Amino acid sequence: MTAYERSCILLRFADLLEKHIDDLAAIETWDNGKPYEQAAEDEVPDVIRLMRYYAGWADKIHGLTIPADGEYHVQTLHEPIGVAGQIVPWNFPLRMFAWKIGPALACGNTVVLKTAELTPLSALYAARLLHEAGLPPGVLNIISGFGRTAGSALCSHMDVNKLAFTGSTETGRIVLDLAAKSNLKPVTLELGGKSPFIVCKDAEIDKAVELAHFALFFNQGQCCNAGSRTFVHESVYDEFVEKARARAMKRVVGDPFKPGVEQGPQVDIKQFEKIHTYIKSGIESGATLECGGERYGSKGFFIQPTVFSNVQDDMLIAKDEIFGPVQTISKFKDLDEVIRRANKSPYGLAAGVFTQNIDTANTLARALRAGSVWINCYHVVDAAIPFGGYKMSGIGREKGVYSLSNYLQVKAVVNPLKNPAWL
C-alpha cells in the first residue's frame, strides 16, 4: 500500500471517531470509571487529533542521500519494521491504543495489540471503525486476555519484530526479559512514575493549588505522570496546604455519567484496596492527614480525595506509585535541595514547576531528570509533543516525530559510480 493510501485511511478513521464520540466516551466510562465529560471533551478528541497528526506523517517518511567518500551513490531507506506487538494499560484505554497504533500504521507496519483485561472494549470498538475506514484485514489485530498468558505469548513470539508496552515498571522488566529470551526484538517502554510538582516561593498560590490538584487527582489519580510528590517552598507552605485541603474537600465525587462530576470510582477492588493500604501507611508513618482517607459512600470503589502534609521522603507514600487520589505535600528551603530530592527517585517520567521567575524555570527544567517538564501547566499531551521517561520510567518516546523511529528500520544502500559528473 502506498503511503498516501495509508494517510487516507487514517484520515477516514479520524472522521469516524469524530462521528462516534458519544459511543466511545460512554464505553470508556463504563469500562474504566472515568468521568464521561473527561472522556468526551478531552480524551476522545485527543485521539482524533492524534490520528490526523500521524495521517499527515505517513507520506513524509523518507531516507537521505549521503555524500560518502569515494565514487559511490549512498542512500538510506526507511522501511517498516514488520509486525509490532503492542500492550496497552487500563487507565487510558483508548488514548494508549491511539498512541500505539498511530505511528505503527503510518510507517506501514502490521499490529497485534493486546488490551488490558480490565478495559478491553474501546479498542475493539475503534478497531471496527478502522476497518470501516478501509484498513485491510490482518493489518490490525486486537487480542483480549491476561498478561501472563496472552501478553507473555505476544512478547515471546518469534514472528513479532518489535514490542511497545505501557504499564508498570515491574511488568516492563518481564517484557524486556521475554523479548531478550526470544528473538531480541527491540522494545519501547512507558512505565511508572513518581513525578515531582515544585511550587516555588514566588508562585501565584491560588493558581498553583489548582494546578497541583489537577496534576494529582486527574483520572482518579490513576495516571503514570501524576504530580504525586508536591514540593512547596517553606515560605508559602502553610498557605498552600490549607488551600490544597480546601480544594480537595470541594472535589465532586460520584456517578461518572453525571454532569459536573470530577472523580469516578477506582478501576477495580484491587486498586481500591491498594490505595487504602498506602493511606494507612501514611498515617502510621507520621504524615498529617489533612482530609479524606476513607471510602466515599457505601458502595462502589470510590475514595475520598485525600491530602497528606508533613510528608518525609523516606515514607512509602513519598516513594511508591500509589496510583490513586492521594496528594502528598512536602516542604523545601532552596532550589539545590529540591533538585536533589526531586531527582532522588528511581522514576523520571514527568515534573511540574510553578514559578514566575524565568531563571528559576530554566534552572529546574534542565536540572530535573524527567522526560517531560511542565512549567506553569501540567498534563499537556499534544499529539506532536514526545512523551516518555528517564531511568525506570521507560525506554523510548511516544507521540510526535520521535515515535516514528520506533517503527522503522534504516537500511543503507551503496552503489558504485562510473565516471560521475560530480561527487
If you had to describe this structure to a student in words, what would you say it looks like?
The protein is globular. The longest helix has 22 residues, at 36-57. 39% of the residues lie in helices and 20% in strands. The chain folds into 2 domains: 3-191 and 393-413, Aldehyde Dehydrogenase, Chain A, domain 1, CATH 3.40.605.10; 196-375, 3-Layer(aba) Sandwich (Aldehyde Dehydrogenase, Chain A, domain 2), CATH 3.40.309. The mean pLDDT is 97. The protein has helices at 3-19, 21-32, 36-57, 93-106, 121-132, 147-156, 169-181, 205-217, 237-250, 269-284, 316-319, 335-343, 358-367; strands at 65-66, 72-80, 83-87, 110-115, 140-144, 162-166, 187-190, 196-199, 229-233, 288-291, 306-309, 326-332, 347-348, 350-354, 372-375, 390-391, 394-395, 408-416. With 423 residues, the chain is of the alpha/beta class.
What would you say about this model in short?
One of its GO terms (biological process) is retinoic acid biosynthetic process. The protein has about 425 residues and is of the alpha/beta class.
